[in-house]
Specification:
alpha/beta; five-stranded parallel sheet; 15 helices; 52% helix; 9% strand; globular; binds zinc ion
Length: 351
């Protein structure tokens, strides 16, 4: 099965060559958009360095299978997991210290101890500084893989000590082919490939769990409906999203990204480039909304959505930023004839 990845051939060639010639770095930084497959590549690398076969990773030996199942004692994933029922807001110094404690031990069952730090830009400053010490004097048999979608938010000193590998979004046709290979019907594969925007990881997650797509639809109903909503509904949504932000930051971020995506689509419909929109199946609603909006209004709203995302990341009070957004959103009349309904269900935690 080899690396078992869709796409990212250059990265795989580079890593297998380094492995074959004994020139693997102690630390890598995988960058690329969310859902592009950074985690899958990191796990494949963890399999490769611990695989018993001549041409690693075989995907079949005990080690490969244990890593695939998340049960290998030497492969550790550090990230924004839940802590005491609450979402972490950062990767803490305690997490890094635990990593260092383990890094000092010989591998329990494999050849290399692998640490995958997911969302490395979320490390607190003290956690990042502590990690630097490990990078300066890496223990033997330790491989560190940092993953980030926001390289610029990492400390330059950290960046300089990691070998960078950039993953790019896949071509839509490649994503579609991968989905079809996994048995998805042509029409559905076409649609999911478009929605994936090159994020193969997301597409494969949808192939494995259709509920993800359903959830996306519900969220899209909410954000696309905001321009049609009255003041009260908008503020209610701002409260909901603000609460979600403090409870599950990743999830709230995903909602905001979807909102931005919707307005980019409106811009494309408005400018006659409808074939490029992400949400092709929302054409009737999209075109009707775009027709009621001026180009300047769409551009201004996109800018405000971007500014809101930036403000939230900078830890501005979520309610405040979201209330401002609710107030400034242009209003359009609801499109009713023959449209799907607009269920306004509660946001829920989850993937
Ligand atoms: Zn193997």
């Amino acid at each position: 099965m080899g690396w078992g990845l869709v796409g990212h051939r250059d990265a795989v060639v580079q890593l297998s060559r380094a492995l074959a010639t004994g020139r693997l770095a102690h630390a890598y930084l995988f960058t690329g958009p969310k859902g592009v497959g950074k985690g899958a590549l990191a796990l494949a690398l963890a399999r490769a360095v611990n695989c018993a076969a001549d041409d690693p990773p075989c995907g079949e030996c005990a080690s490969c299978r244990r890593i695939g199942a998340g049960k290998h004692a030497d492969v550790h994933i550090v990230g924004m997991d839940m802590k005491g029922g609450k979402a972490r807001t950062e990767i803490s110094i305690e997490q890094v210290e635990e990593m260092q404690r383990l890094a000092a031990l010989r591998p329990f069952e494999g050849r290399s101890r692998v640490f995958i730090v997911d969302g490395a830009e979320r490390m607190s400053a003290e956690a990042a500084n502590r990690l630097l010490k490990t990078l300066e004097e890496p223990p033997p048999q330790v491989l560190l893989v940092l993953l980030t979608a926001n390289e610029r938010e990492l400390l330059p000193t950290l960046l300089s000590r990691c070998q960078p590998i950039r993953l790019r979004a896949l071509a839509e046709a490649d994503v579609r082919a991968a989905l079809q290979e996994r048995g998805m019907a042509d029409e559905e594969a076409r649609r999911v490939a478009r929605l994936a925007q090159g994020r193969i990881g997301w597409a494969l997650a949808v192939a494995a769990d259709g509920a993800l797509l359903q959830k996306r639809e519900e969220r899209l109903d909410q954000v696309a409906g905001q321009a049609q909503a009255d003041r009260e509904q908008r503020f209610a949504f701002a409260v909901e999203l603000g609460t979600l932000f403090s409870r599950n930051r990743e999830e709230a971020r995903a909602v905001l990204e979807l909102w931005q995506e919707w307005w980019r689509d409106l811009l494309l419909w408005k400018t006659g480039m409808g074939e490029w929109v992400t949400n092709l199946d929302r054409r009737a609603t999209g075109e009707a909304q775009a027709a009621q909006l001026g180009l300047g209004e769409i551009v201004a709203t996109l800018r405000r959505l971007d500014a809101t995302a930036v403000a939230l990341e900078a830890n501005v009070t979520p309610r405040l930023a979201l209330d401002v957004l609710a107030l400034s959103m242009p209003h359009v009349e609801a499109v009713t004839s023959g449209q799907r309904e607009q269920p306004v269900e509660s946001l829920q935690d989850g993937v």
